[in-house]
Amino acid sequence: MPTLRAAAAPKKTAGNTRPYEYSKAVWTWISIFLAADLVLNIIWMLTIPMSKAPDEEVRIILSDYVFQHGALPNAWDEAVRINGWGFSYALRPMLVNILGAFNMWVVSLFTDSLYAQVLAVRIISCFSGTAMVYFVFRCGQYLGWKPAWSWMAAAICGLMPQITFLAGYHNNDLFSTACVTAVMYCWLRGMREKWTWPDCIKFAIAMGVTILSYYNAYPYILFSIPLFFLTAFHRKMPRYEKREMWKKTGVIVLITFLIAGWWFIRMGMLYDGDILGSKTRLVMGEQFAEYAKKPSVIFKPQREGVSYFELWNFTHGDPFSWSKKTFMSSIALLGVMDFLFPAQVYDYPALILTIGLGLFILQFIYWIVRQIYRAIKKQPCDHQANQDLLFFILAALSAALVIALALYYSWTDDYQPQGRYIIPAFTTFVLAMTAGYRFGAIMIGKCFGRFAQDATTALSWIVSVAAVAFMITLQAYCYGRIMPDYIERPRLTQSYIEHRLKYSPQGSKQTAEEAALKKKNPAGSSLSSHSASENPLPASQPELVPAQ
After folding, report:
1. Closest among 428, 404, 432 to 216, alpha carbons compared
2. What is the pLDDT of residues 408-450, one digit of tens each?
3. 462-494 burial string, b = 16+ CB within 10 Å, else e?
4. Cα–Cα distance between 169 and 524 in angstroms, integer?
């Protein structure tokens, strides 16, 4: 039976700081955990009805279009426009929709079931959640953490109810979170390995895919630039090494462009140079949206005189402020922001996060003071500590910018305090929090003198096991509360079925199963942005349903 104790110490070579080498036994257990996480995500996928999956039915129509026509849609096409709001998500990166269409095609070879095709699209989110957890393990390894701390970070990421909820339906948010976690892994690997050719190619692929995931992941692409140049080049670098590194830089740019550049060229050609689709979205909204949902009419805090920083504590008639509701919906405010759990579900994670980040700030100060002391005493530089410091600084800046952009969007465009808009920053906070607890354990362990190493190891496993147990309990509680309500609801919405039939190339032709599904589903809401919800209130002010 493999045990988790079998892990080798970090290996170092001249000039390089190698990752903590996890044993085969550890990777066996990690593989088992990843498989279990994927199963858990699939269980959520089978549980969540489309009517409680935010925006799913207005995003999945893009996969429908690609599957049915074998081409990407123009946002102006009525088949991909969102009723009521007038615009289309075809103005946003569509890699997830393309992958979903491919899965639809594969499933269609074996069955005509519409629900099976929807599940084929959803499975991408399931794998995205598991991929995110895998890259968290990798980040922990390249940060030089012992397995206990990697387990803690991975369990928090994989078992957080909001994450497993996102893993259960079709969305771009969790896919982009997996992508930015892969980018951060490439940051660490590149720094540790001195940017070898394989590292550079992986880095380029990760950035290219991230660019095609969603706009809220772009801060991590932005800060990839200074991280690469600060760690790949240095003043005493020999000329031949510098030439080689410039070649690698060119290859990174080329691969990234080949993966993602076509999208912006296409956008510019289709929408008169509007490569991000922002202006086109406003024009479409004014032309096709219902009056109350037109960009010139809808509530915008900026237009109402609310300042950008005031929005942080702004409520807009909600029981919760923008910041609190965004935090809650990053933990477990499920459904279309309408399934509210008891306060403890949010308070305990908030306390754990606050303590961890507080310890991380202390570690940050300790790093700075120690480096200044080393410089004054002219002691050798701790390269790994410098790399860790740079990694967390740029990751924190990226996460802060993700939140700032979400706040700006709510301020200027559409007031939407939703955790999924900041979810790409989730793994950054978890890694920083875990680093904080690790620092605390090391500092406490030093109090035990010659038993410091044993004390630190014991503390690491105590904290890690406690965190994993808490997350399992939280996950089981939230799923247990929401499952009885969700499992009884129709799997698909009436409006999605009607839309699929209306815009299918076969016209009015429908399979026997689709006809049966249409008959079983009660009349639902029309396709509209911010979720195909049965909730009559706007998404920014849902009727919160406390768990019993």
Report:
1. 404
2. 999 999 899 999 999 999 999 999 999 999 999 999 999 988 8
3. ebbeebbebbeebbebbbebbeebbeebebbbb
4. 18
Q: How many domains does the chain have?
A: 1
Region of residue 511 (phi > 0: left; psi between -120 and 50: alpha; otherwise: beta): beta
What's the domain range around 183?
22-492
Identify the residue whose tokens are 């970090």.
Answer: 10
Q: How far is CA 447 from CA 3, 274, 355, 399, 460, in A?
A: 28, 60, 20, 34, 15
Tell me whether residue 528 is in a domain. no
Residue 4: its pLDDT value, please?
Answer: 42
Read out DSSP for 104-128? HHHHHTT---HHHHHHHHHHHHHHH
Q: Say whether pLDDT at 13 is over 60.
A: no
Question: Is residue 522 in a domain?
Answer: no
Q: Does residue 422 belong to any structural domain of this protein?
A: yes
Residue at 506 is within a domain:
no
Q: What is the largest CA-CA distance in the chain?
A: 80
- Alpha helices (H) along 143-214: 147-159, 161-166, 173-193, 197-211
Task: Report residue 206 as tokens.
Answer: 């990760």
Q: Give the burial class of 26: count Cβ atoms within 10 A of its Cβ; 0-12 exposed, 13-18 middle, 19 or more buried.
A: buried
